Amino acid sequence: MKPLPTTAVLALFAATSACLAQPEVPCGQPLDAALHSGASLAIDSRPAGIEIVATDQQTIHITCKASSEDQDAQTALRTHLQLSGTPSHTRLTITGPHLEHNGVQVRIEVPRKVNLDLQMPAGQVTVEDIVGDKNIELKAGQITISSPHTWNYSKVDVSVGVGQVNAQVYGANKGGFFREFRKQDAAGEYRLHAHVMTGQIELLGKPAHTTTDPE
pTM (2 decimals)? Predict the structure, then answer.
């Protein structure tokens, strides 16, 4: 068999890698790219309010806005979004002032089945109806994970240094210092890890049916 010409090899590599590398865009300008169902999405963000919601599209659609106050608007102008990676392994980087939340709100629409890895110094993270593994960590703020469907996790590990863990789907509510909630279910499919040093974690949805007791 004859080897492929160099141009054909390069074309094949480009087609299979489908790199998403894009220039930064300012908050206020939407950002779109292909994102496969079952893909891994890593998010590295400055302090912000982040809402991640499920859609039936094979894309990621990101919008960003600030409140109408002048200081917040100026902060939004200095906040930038960038996508990199491939439709199967995507990274979203959100850069900008790191001292305060400053009213910047980011909405991220993704396929219903996505594995999430999110790291942020402070802010609020809301995850709605996303199916897949989740690893979410904040130094300060609130994490809310909700689903209208059956809670389908084989391993749940959530904790706060100071604050509250409200695991409504498991009928548990713990507050104070170094609070945590752990659960395993042999029938579950995904893993959930969430940690906030100072703040609150909420797990909302239909009651989970588990096969083991909390650790």
Answer: 0.84
